Fold this protein.
Amino acid sequence: MNIDNIRLEREEDFRDTEVLTREAFWDLYRPGCVEHLLVHKLRKTPAFVKELDFVAVCNHRIVGNIMFSRAMILDEQQGKYEVLTLGPVSVHPEFQKKGIGSQLIRHGIVCEREKGLKALVLFGSPEYYQRFGFVNAKEFNIRTSDGQNFDAFMVLELYNGSLKGIEGRYFEDSVFQIDMREVEEFEKGFPYKEKHITPTQLFPG
Ligand SMILES: CC(C)(COP(=O)(O)OP(=O)(O)OC[C@H]1O[C@@H](n2cnc3c(N)ncnc32)[C@H](O)[C@@H]1OP(=O)(O)O)[C@@H](O)C(=O)NCCC(=O)NCCS
């Protein structure tokens, strides 16, 4: 689908982006969602990379957003390596499956390569992210902070060999640990939306 452009998010877009994120994630991974609060809080953390906070605009409406934040891989010798966490990424449900998500992700990747950044890490659908070159983190001997590996834990080297010699545990910013009481408070600033249990949910409750 032709979008008008992909550009940096501006302060006046913040509310629209949070509304869009809420629509995209609602009932998808749990009844309701937390990602609109995550977006709200992420912008205020030092880990947030504001030069990599993009919105997709279609007919002057924000229909997609992607954000990146600084994260760490720590090895056994206390070596620290900076990588980026991809996400949240969201496309408004009315505009999904039209290529906008792919355009946002590819745009992010190109900008990160230009900046010489090393690698992206995310938790997401292998089926979706493989198309951008993401592979299981296990291939680089990278584990979660509590030492796990699973299919959804994926890594992309931003240039060939960028992760050579780097392995260990991955730590995303603490902002990703969302307090459900804070979500309930934040929800009061949005029009009421009913929560449902759906088959797509990994974290029901
Ligand atoms: C994931 C998301 C950003 C993709 O954006 P999009 O504009 O719909 O994606 P595109 O049009 O570029 O690509 C669509 C393709 O991705 C697939 N896809 C989208 N989400 C997927 C998912 N969670 N798992 C597997 N495949 C997925 C579609 O089935 C479609 O496949 P096809 O190309 O084989 O037909 C969007 O669907 C979204 O906002 N989803 C809700 C929020 C979310 O899950 N974000 C990612 C969290 S890791």
User: Anything to note?
Assistant: The beta strands are 5-8, 54-58, 61-74, 80-91, 119-123, 135-136, 142-144, 153-157, 168-171.
